[in-house]
Structure formats: structure tokens, C-alpha cells
Amino acid sequence: MALHIGDIFSSVEVAKDAINRFIVDSRESYMKETSNKRQYSVTCRTQSSGCKFSIRCGLQKDGNARVSKMSPHTCNPRTHYKFKQLSSLWYLLPHHRASISHNREISVAQIRANEKEQWANDINYMAAYRTREALRIELDGKEEDDFARMNDLGARIQDVDPQSFLVLESTNDARFSRFFFAPNALRLAVPHLRPFIALDACHCSSRYRQTLMIAVGIDGNNQVVPLCWAICQKEDCNNWRWFLRCLGSAHGGMRGPFATRKDLVIMSDREKGLDIAVQEMLPTATHSYCAQHIAANIQTK
Ligand SMILES: [Zn+2]
After folding, report:
1. Which is more confident, 293 or 232?
2. Other beta carbons less than 10 A from residue 272's beta carbon
3. How far is the CA of 279 from the centre of ligand 1 (A)?
């Protein structure tokens, strides 16, 4: 980016960012001289060398900020060696906002490679890691804040879908424990589905490594229909038991199709806790195992 005397910016704050970025993009360094709402100016870090470097901008009467002085460095270029602003967040964030917005799981090595290729800037692992984490928080918010908002989310869901079935559990010290949800539209669909439920769980790729449990059915057109899902801390017998109890309650309880149909088939992988939970909670159902999971297990063993 170029910068010239007379350039106009909407505020001193905007001009300050443009000036700093112009200097760092030119692989030079600076030292702040004045920084307030009316004025921003920088000088050379080695003023003792007699370097005349200076860039200045000030607020005009019309509220815009104008660059009023630009004198280049006259010092030895080694002054700029290892200037730490090259690894600072304010400088790096705009370079990587688009790529992290597109892919939250981008590797730190890839961020380092992009920075080197596009901006000829060799940053270390920590600088690239901090950049990725700061942009993830900027784009998605802090995950821990989301847990605190689970009650609000539950209330909002019940507002818009009052017939939905929702269970939200917290620990004694009011921390999020687990969450189960079956929208009303899917509850209404269940009596018309084939007598089949597939159960599975997967890890969420988030910082707190929660587990997503899901049950799906199949309709008359052989299309997969999700029935309900839950978020909990881990996949074990206790959580599967709780999930199947919620599933039963959401879909008619003891008089519902899952409790009364003798021809119900449950399909799952061979997760140990799930096996026991199905036997306990759906004793009349036939429990079968997914052939694809079994084949995958054989291949990995
Ligand atoms: Zn200088």
C-alpha cells in the first residue's frame, strides 16, 4: 500500500493503522511519538543516529485526518532487523481473516506458509498460532461463552417451537452438562416411519471436545429422517441410557411407537455402552450392527 502527503482518512485511528501498515509493509520500523485522537506521529527507533524519519497526521476541521509530513529513513537498514510488529496481531489478522473464515481448521504451518508467500514475512509458530486463535474468537466468539448462553438458547427454541422436546441439564454449580433436542416436526413424523432407528455418536471438533449423539429413522421412501440429537461430554453407557430415555419420552413415552412396536430394529456400531443401554431401555427391539462399522474395525485391526 502506498502513502503520500495529503492522503485523507476518516479518522486519526484509521490513519494510524494505514501509516503503521505502510511502514511494516515496506519492511521498515518506527517508534511512536504522539498518539491521541487529534494527532499521530512516528519517528525512527534510532533517533540518536540522526535519522530524519518522520510521518505525521492530524485531525482537520472537517473531522478527517490528513497526512501532513513524510520524511524517509536515513539510518542504517539494520535498524529494522527483527522489528517485532511483523509478528504482531494487528498486522497479521487482516492477512489471514479470509482464509480462516473459509477454513477454521487451517494448520498453523499453512498460515506460516501463506504469510511467507504472500507478504514475504517469516513468522514463528507462536505468532501464526495466536493469529489463528484470535480470528477464531473474532469469527465465532468464545466457546465458553456459548455454554453460558445454553439456557437462553433453550428458551428461544421453546418460544418458536413450543411442542418440541428439549432437555437441558446443568451440574450443581450451574455448568452445562448435556442437551437433548427433538423438534416437533420430527416428533410428528415418527408414527409414519419404518420401525427402524440408527444410533451413532461423533466427537465435535471444538475446543471442549463434546460428543454429538444422534438417532435417525427411515421413511416410506427410504429417505433418512433425523429423529433427535444430543450434546454430552462423552459416549458411554450412562449417556446412551439417558439419550434413549429422552428419545422414548420425546416420541410418545411408554405408549409411543418405540415402546410398543415389537418389530423395531436398532442399528449401531459395537460401542460397548450403547449395547447395554439398548438392552435396558429398548428390551423388545432387535439390535443389529452396522456392517460398514464392522468392516472398518476389521480393516483397522
Ligand atoms: Zn531511521
Report:
1. 232
2. 11
3. 77
Does residue 197 sit in the same domain as residue 294? yes
CA of 69 to the centre of ligand 1 (A): 15
Whether residues 158 and 244 share a domain: the answer is: yes
Q: Are residues 161 and 288 in the same domain?
A: yes
Q: Are residues 164 and 281 in the same domain?
A: yes
Number of domains forming the structure of the chain: 3
Predicted confidence (pLDDT) per residue in 147-176, tens digit: 888 889 999 999 999 999 999 998 888 888
Same domain as 237, residue 255: yes
Q: How far is the CA of 7 from the centre of ligand 1 (A)?
A: 22
Find the domain containing 97 and state its range. 84-141
Distance 202 CA to ligand 1 centre (A): 57
Average the pLDDT over 263-284 and give the result.
Answer: 84
Ligand 1 centroid distance, CA of 277 (Å): 72
